[in-house]
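Help needed: design a sequence for this.
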């Protein structure tokens, strides 16, 4: 019997593995590099197109060098400690239980040892390099800063040391300290793991090998030397310290000078001595001496650095604090006034009159004629309804106040740019082509007189429409760069064509619009995006493949992005803090956005420290989306050093050196020598629209609330400190009232000037709401090319008597509300399904006292709503005026003749209820029957029902007609049908008159 042998298994060929994993890794790396390149190279293109490549190059090179230096120092320090600790390990570790326990850790880490010795220092180096690169501005100022020429009162050291050198030294010391601490930790861990250092008990002999002892001793000595350097620098830094608790002044006080500063010097010397003990240990091998030294240093730090200053403060300073601190408080006062540019404020006593007399405004005729009635924070909806033209145009929620020469006269103006808002397009219009290549820009500016009103309370526009018409004449109206521009647009079609951009609506074209092609062969508004490479980069940058494949992206195309004026200036001037308001002006035939830039520091000796965010937050920044508070940054020095403009058509940016005496700006001018233009390059037209910045004024007024007290004794007592009043028109009345631009003539001055003003009331939560001070700064820069008016920036502070009875804004607003005539008519308007909005409450030092002016707007509560100026409130002392015009209200307050004409004098008044003017009686006369009667208790619904059952029906019917008239009037005005609007207003007046008559019957 034979048996077949089993078949041999067929050999299996080994599976060939392709290089899949390395390929995927390579592809991933390439993708990451391409994405990074899309961000980096497009930044280069953006800066290059604007002509500010120097800024990008300087910042990136400085950051890069600091990154490399930081990486190298950290990696080298930690790497050396790790590698030296391993190489210097003992050949035979001592035979102890401690070392036996460490064997398992040595065995576990051995396979990864090489990786740890390399990767550990590299990772720490990357973090250190990133941290070091963030200090590029500190290092640049350190390198380029120069002496200021002013010395501090304690050491007699030039302020340039504090502003430029001290921050740089602090950075170096703290960075090296971090390197040495981490290197020490690495050395201790390595020596311990490999037996060079023993901690626990066991076999006799030294606890460290010679190599470990020398290594750790040197590191300890270096750390102590840096501690000594830090203590020594503290002696200077203490001059800029922020006081804690209830102390109201900053900088070194009596205890700091006589106890803390000497203790810092003692501790610095002690640290050097202990460092020497560590060096001695490297040779002697005795750790007892440095250990004792470190212990004594800790005790000294507690006793000399903590307990002794506390004793001096408690037993020497506090019992005699005013006398002891007087010198240092005065240092703080003087330094603060200098650091915030407040050392030239003109302070004068103002014994404000509270009695309104006929003809009192005769000497303030220019101010009276310029009083602004248009509230830029309320009338934006009116601009939108009357000047929007198309739904995809929009205006900011807070408009700007400027001044323009019209018919040879400077007129305060409320102005806004008609910007593009893609959200205004309907859903059917929204697609990539329309959003990116068709709807690319806004069109024109709209301007209205600030001191008068148009038909039936609408703004009186002197510039508007599409195409723009008015007193501005011809200018480039296209707005490619603004605060609400699309994220990016692509402009420029084939040369010789009309283009496909929507320029402006025109019913005569047959298509409903006029096309436009941005002339990219003549003008440059953005980087070229015509080539394939740039297309690909920008497609990656914006995550939009349409850029790569669209035929509308051609060789003539430019891409516009980073279009907000504030963002553009922030990128090319990273050393500036920018004002929260960007405002437009028509300058030399172009629309320019004007931005104020600030240089700041927190290193000015003895100056008060303030938060920019806290100082610049007010009721306007809380409710506006376009006006912002400054960043939450602590500073004790600020200058408006740069004026910047952004062209709304091509996006070009110009930076002008405004405060050439600012030492920080001088240093940055050396860092970026070609980015700033001299003031001499400012044209006369641009100069006429430059104004004193709001945020700087807010910071200064916040300081003057305390630092108007310039003697140490009064400052110490704090009984004459002020605060800015809350805004009575805001929902949260505790938020400060914003400052206001207006043309006014300060007492003692020869003429009125465009100014920025604010008021003060007593400090403290329970203080009376009466005026204690009035602050105004001359905001007019003049109109001479390259030269600033001598009075620009001049601050004048009026101090009212300490027993002042002049109402503050809150009290003045409350007086308006409590006035029977005012409340009765406003209540009737509000009950007619309409909303009454009281505008900005302006305060003016005229007639020997303080005059309050507040416009009153009415708008429908639903449907097409926008505010219309219907009444004006005025008060002087206890006298209140309330009329259809400011001129009429002033005459009411000043006995029938104010002595001057307001801007709306001679305007046709809105007929008052009953056909006569409201409240126009002469001084001393009782209100006539035509005047609005005061409400009485009999006017309640129940009482009225008893007095005249038909009166209630008549009142309801009259209110219904008023409601309908308001709605009809707003709709007619939106359609610019002024005949229908006038008819609706006549019906509204009659309805109000009927409602008042019905209320009289109810009261009767």
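Sure. Designed sequence:
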């Amino acid at each position: 019997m034979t048996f077949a042998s089993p078949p041999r298994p067929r050999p299996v060929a080994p599976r060939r593995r392709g290089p899949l994993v390395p390929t995927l890794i390579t592809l991933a790396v390439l993708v990451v590099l391409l994405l990074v390149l899309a961000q980096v190279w497009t930044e280069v293109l953006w800066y290059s197109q604007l002509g500010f490549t120097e800024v990008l190059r300087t910042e990136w090179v400085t950051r890069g060098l600091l990154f490399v230096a930081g990486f190298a120092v950290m990696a080298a320090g930690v790497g050396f400690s790790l590698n030296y600790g391993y190489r210097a390990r003992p050949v035979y570790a001592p035979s102890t239980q401690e070392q036996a326990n460490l064997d398992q850790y040595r065995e576990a880490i051995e396979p990864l040892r090489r990786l740890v010795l390399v990767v550990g220092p590299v990772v720490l180096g990357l973090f250190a390099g990133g941290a070091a690169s963030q200090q590029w501005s500190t290092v640049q100022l350190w390198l380029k800063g120069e002496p200021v020429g002013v010395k501090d009162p304690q050491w007699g050291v030039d302020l340039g040391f504090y502003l430029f050198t001290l921050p740089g030294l602090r950075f170096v010391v703290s960075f090296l300290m971090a390197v040495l601490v981490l290197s020490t930790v690495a050395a201790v861990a390595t020596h311990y793991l490999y037996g060079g250092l023993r901690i626990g008990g066991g076999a006799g002999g030294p606890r460290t090998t010679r190599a470990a002892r020398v290594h750790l001793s040197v590191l300890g000595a270096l750390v102590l030397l840096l501690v000594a350097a830090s203590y020594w620098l503290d002696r200077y830094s203490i001059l800029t310290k922020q006081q804690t608790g209830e102390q109201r002044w900053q900088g070194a006080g009596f205890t700091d000078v006589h106890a803390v500063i000497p203790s810092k010097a003692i501790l610095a010397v002690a640290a050097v001595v202990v460092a020497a003990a560590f060096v001695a240990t490297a040779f002697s091998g005795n750790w007892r001496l440095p250990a004792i030294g470190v212990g004594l240093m800790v005790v000294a730090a507690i006793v000399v650095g903590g307990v002794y200053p506390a004793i001096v403060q408690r037993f020497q300073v506090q019992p005699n604090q005013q006398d002891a601190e007087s010198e240092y408080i005065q240092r703080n006062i003087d330094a603060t006034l200098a650091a915030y540019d407040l050392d030239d404020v003109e302070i004068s006593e103002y014994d404000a009159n509270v009695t309104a007399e006929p003809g009192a405004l005769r000497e303030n005729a220019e101010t009276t004629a310029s009083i602004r009635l248009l509230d830029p924070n309320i009338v934006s909806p009116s601009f939108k309804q009357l000047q929007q033209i198309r739904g995809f145009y929009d205006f900011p929620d807070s408009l700007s106040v400027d001044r323009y020469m019209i018919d040879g006269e400077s007129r305060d103006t409320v102005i806004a740019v008609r910007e593009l808002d893609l959200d205004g397009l309907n859903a059917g219009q929204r697609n990539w082509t329309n959003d990116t290549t068709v709807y690319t820009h806004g069109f024109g500016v709209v301007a209205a007189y600030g001191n008068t009103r148009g038909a039936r309370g609408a703004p009186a526009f002197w510039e508007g429409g599409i195409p723009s018409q008015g007193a501005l004449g011809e200018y480039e109206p296209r707005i490619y760069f603004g605060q609400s521009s699309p994220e990016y647009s692509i402009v420029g079609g084939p040369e010789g064509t009309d283009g496909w951009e929507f320029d402006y609506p025109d019913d005569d074209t047959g298509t409903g619009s006029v096309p436009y092609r941005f002339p990219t062969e003549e003008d440059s508004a953005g980087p070229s995006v015509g080539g394939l490479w740039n297309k690909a980069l920008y497609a990656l940058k914006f995550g939009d493949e349409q850029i790569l494949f669209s035929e509308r992206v051609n060789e003539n195309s430019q891409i516009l992005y980073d279009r907000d004026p504030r963002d553009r200036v922030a990128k090319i001037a990273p050393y500036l803090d920018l004002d929260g308001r960007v405002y437009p002006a028509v300058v030399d035939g172009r629309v320019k956005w004007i931005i104020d830039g600030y240089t700041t520091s927190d290193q000015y000796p003895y100056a008060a420290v303030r938060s920019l965010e806290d100082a610049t937050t007010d009721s306007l920044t809380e409710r506006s989306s376009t006006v912002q508070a400054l960043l939450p940054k602590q500073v004790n020095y600020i200058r408006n050093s740069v004026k910047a403009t952004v062209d709304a058509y091509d996006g070009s940016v110009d930076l002008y050196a405004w405060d050439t005496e600012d030492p920080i700006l001088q240093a940055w001018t050396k860092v970026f020598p070609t980015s700033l233009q001299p003031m001499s390059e400012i044209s006369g037209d641009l100069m006429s629209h430059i104004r004193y910045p709001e945020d700087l004024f807010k910071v200064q007024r916040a300081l003057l609330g305390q630092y108007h007290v310039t003697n140490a004794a009064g400052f110490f007592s704090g009984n004459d400190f002020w605060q800015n009043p809350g805004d009575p028109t805001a929902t949260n009345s505790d938020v400060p009232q914003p400052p206001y631009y207006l043309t006014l003539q300060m007492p003692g001055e020869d003429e009125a000037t465009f100014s920025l003003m604010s008021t003060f009331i007593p400090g403290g939560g329970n203080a009376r709401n009466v005026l204690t001070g009035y602050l105004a700064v001359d905001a007019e820069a003049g109109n001479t090319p390259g030269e600033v008016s001598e009075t620009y920036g001049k601050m004048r502070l009026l101090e009212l008597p300490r027993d002042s009875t002049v109402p503050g804004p809150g009290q003045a607003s409350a007086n308006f509300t409590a006035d029977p005539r005012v409340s009765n008519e406003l209540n009737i308007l509000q009950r007619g399904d309409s909303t009454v909005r009281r505008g900005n409450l302006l305060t003016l030092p005229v007639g020997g006292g303080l005059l309050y002016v507040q416009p009153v707007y009415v708008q429908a509560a639903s449907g097409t709503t926008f505010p219309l100026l219907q009444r004006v409130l005025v008060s002087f002392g206890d006298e209140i005026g309330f009329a259809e015009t400011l001129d009429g209200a002033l005459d009411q307050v000043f006995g029938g003749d104010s002595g001057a004409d307001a801007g709306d004098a001679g305007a046709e008044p809105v007929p008052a209820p009953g056909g006569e003017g409201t409240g126009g009686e002469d001084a001393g006369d009782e209100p006539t029957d035509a005047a609005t009667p005061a409400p009485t208790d009999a006017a309640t619904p129940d009482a009225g029902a008893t007095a005249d059952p038909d009166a209630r029906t008549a009142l309801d019917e009259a209110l219904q007609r008023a409601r309908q008239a308001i709605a009809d009037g707003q709709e007619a005005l939106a359609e610019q049908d002024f005949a229908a609007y006038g008819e609706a207003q006549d019906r509204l007046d009659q309805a109000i008159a009927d409602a008042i008559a019905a209320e009289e019957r109810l009261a009767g």
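The radius of gyration is 37 Å.
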